[in-house]
């Protein structure tokens, strides 16, 4: 019996500091070796780092933050980059931008989430916005990670990921 290939999933957002970071850490935590998640941004700011509230939210949920960093999506468009099987935009800005050419032409989908870093209020209210976003991403990833192997070939993968975008 052949072992199933690990699927590489890239989550994209504009700055790669909140939603895409949450999704990367969460899928790596939930994926059980079936998935390897990465994240990047279309235009991370100079010296961009993951949002401290995103890191705190992940740590509070018991999810590893090791290795998380903000980076440009150009990192994944090079010949020596890991080849992606699925690219998911998690913010509306990145969804509307012209993406670089991805080696291997991976399946694509858009899963839009409100930006928790735009929440105005107390520190506790801001942290709650991140917790809610993490919960929304987790609900979708619960469904995604439970898809049967037959749904994870390239054509089915895109259809399945896009179907999960619908509320």
How would you sum up this structure in a few lines?
By secondary structure, this protein is α/β, with parallel strands linked by helices. The protein is 35% helix and 13% strand.
Structural class: alpha/beta
Q: What would CATH call the homologous superfamily?
A: Response regulator
Strand order of the largest sheet: 2-1-3-4
Q: Averaged pLDDT, please?
A: 87
Largest sheet, in brief, is: 4 strands, parallel
Give the H and E element order: EHEHEHEHH
Low-confidence stretches: none
Strand content: 5-15%
**What is the count of DSSP helices, taking H or I runs of 4+ residues?**
5
What CATH architecture label applies?
3-Layer(aba) Sandwich
Descriptive report:
This protein is α/β, with parallel strands linked by helices. The chain has a single domain (about 10-155), classed as 3-Layer(aba) Sandwich (Rossmann fold), CATH 3.40.50. Helices cover about 35% and strands about 15% of the residues. The chain contains five helices and four strands. It has helices spanning about 20-30, 50-60, 90-95, 125-145, 155-165, and strands at about 5-15, 35-40, 85-90, 105-110. Strands 2-1-3-4 form a four-stranded parallel β-sheet. Strand 3 (about 85-90), helix 3 and strand 4 (about 105-110) form a beta-alpha-beta unit. Helix 1 packs across helix 4 and helix 2 crosses helix 4. The longest helix is centred in the last third of the chain and has 23 residues, at about 125-145. The protein is globular, with a radius of gyration of 15 Å. The N and C termini lie far apart (about 35 Å). The model has no long low-confidence stretch (mean pLDDT about 85).
């Amino acid at each position: 019996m052949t072992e199933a290939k690990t699927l590489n999933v890239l989550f994209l957002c504009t700055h790669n500091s909140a939603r895409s970071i949450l999704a990367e850490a969460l899928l790596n935590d939930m994926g059980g070796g079936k998935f390897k998640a990465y994240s990047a941004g279309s235009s991370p700011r100079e010296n961009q780092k993951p949002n401290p509230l995103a890191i705190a939210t992940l740590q509070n949920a018991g999810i590893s933050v090791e290795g998380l960093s903000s980076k440009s999506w150009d990192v994944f468009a090079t010949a020596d980059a890991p080849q992606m099987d699925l690219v998911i935009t998690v913010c509306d800005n990145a969804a509307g931008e012209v993406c670089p050419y991805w080696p291997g032409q991976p399946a694509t989908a858009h899963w839009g989430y409100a930006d928790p870093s735009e929440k105005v209020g107390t520190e506790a209210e801001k942290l709650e916005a991140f917790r809610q976003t993490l919960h929304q991403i987790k609900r979708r990833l619960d469904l995604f990670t439970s898809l049967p192997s037959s749904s994870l070939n390239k054509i089915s993968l895109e259809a399945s990921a896009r179907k999960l975008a619908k509320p």
